[in-house]
Amino acid sequence: MERVPVAERENWKDTAAEHGFDFHSIDGDPYWDESAYYRFTLSQIEEDIEKAAEEIEDLCFQVVDRAINNEEVLDRLSIPEAFWDYIAQSWKNGEKNLLGRMDLSYNGDGPAKLLEYNADTPTTLYETAVFQWEWLEHALDKEVLPENSDQLNDVHESLVEAFKNLGLDGLTHFACNQEIEDDKGTLDYIEECAREAGIKSCSLNMEEIGIDDAGRFTDLDNHNVNTLVKLYPWEWLMRENFGSHIPASGVNFIEPPWKTILANKGLLPLLWGMFEGHPNLLPSFFEDDPASSQLIDSGSYVRKPLLSRQGANIEIVDNGNVLIKSEGPYAEDLHIVQGFEPLPEFDGRYPLVGCWMVASKAVGLCIREDNNLVTGTGANVIPHVILD
């Protein structure tokens, strides 16, 4: 694994606009960055990332299978009690999941370590599947890269196939907070894949979903919402005013309710508790667990809220010194502590490896870089290449 500087295309912003990548820059600063790429060997991708991610996925399913029958665990995850049976039934019914992104610390040498699993509302999907691939094709065409260069990037084809396998009938609704540009861009792309799979679709804002007298969710045209592909966190849905109507609504949600267990940072101590010593896991404990003292006393650990997003309220301590303590709205929430596995540094940049899972298969790689150890809202997306 290495970071390779490369010349940007002079017209890349125009190309992005032509491809509908309207959020390529945020507040005037580039979000997409093609001034460099990360180079991996095929073995690093297949053995250290793909294989590891699919094995972790299997471990996660074992955690869900145990957690749904453990009220203490569900309570510890801050899941409202009114949803416990609903979540358990969604797992027992075999409701299919669509996608997620595992965030890994990986330096090219040794096993990748799971930092967290964005299992419910992951973004950077379009950038990974479409624009990153477009960059590769252009680089190959202009002979910027050797002709045997490749990517881990079967995201688009895998999403289309996964939608076909969901067996959806009738109208499928797609909803998010459309005022958030990258959320809307991500969901628009997911909807595009669904349409390519032959699914009839309709997009709307989350706040445009209503409830009729029978407790059914409806859209602005009073059509029943039977299947809802959402880019809106389960923990928010469950706490909305309409949340109490969800279990009896009859809606088929994608992602399914059981995914809320995996999207919670509490997944990490649950994984460690069941599979302590696994090479792709870091020691992790709920902060109120006496066992967490072994990490805290060591002086090197990461403290994370259960439901934090976008790097908010993360505290990194190394050798007894606080390296970073990010701001955010989750300071009073329950926390976990996790072993500190620093991201590698390349020229003052810290890459976080995101492995995209579609229908539980590792199908894509996304690199986000920041200028510190916490990958936050200012991170850039940077392409990757497989080249031996």
Task: Note down, in words, how this protein is organized.
This protein is of the alpha+beta class. The chain has 2 domains: 2-263 and 346-386, no CATH class; 283-339, no CATH class. It has 11 helices and 21 strands. Strands 6-5-18-19-20 form a 5-stranded antiparallel sheet. Strands 13-17-14-15-16 form a 5-stranded antiparallel sheet. The protein has a 4-stranded parallel sheet with strand order 8-7-11-12, with helices on one face. Helix 8 (234-237) links the parallel strand 11 and strand 12 (252-254). It is globular and about 60 Å long. It starts with a strand and ends with a strand. The mean pLDDT is 96.
Distance between the termini: 10 Å
Strand order of the largest sheet: 6-5-18-19-20
Largest sheet: 5 strands, antiparallel
Number of helices: 11
Helix content: 25-40%
- Based on Cα principal axes, name the global outline: globular
Q: How many domains is the backbone divided into?
A: 2
Rg is: 21 Å
Per DSSP, what share of the residues sits in E-state strands of 2 or more residues? 25-35%
Q: Structural class, judged by helices and strands?
A: alpha+beta
Number of extended strands: 21
